[in-house]
Amino acid sequence: MPTLETAIQKIQQLPPEQWQKVIEFIEFLEYQSSQQQKTPKTLDNSQVSFAEAAKEFMGYLDSDLEDLSHNPQYLEELGQ
Prior knowledge:
Layout: H1 4-13, H2 16-38, H3 50-53, H4 72-76
């Protein structure tokens, strides 16, 4: 595992123009770490039915088409 000294040596070997990118990346890692600490991941084990989960989408697929099971032409070849 790289040590802090190794990281510092590698940063010092970079051209000075690249140092700002390293600082921005470190700040990103700090931000990411603080966000993970603020919102701990919890598992929600409560069961939700499909109908409840899809409630907001109900009605999107409604159309004027009839149910094919009641279409006589569709049922003519059934079972042959």
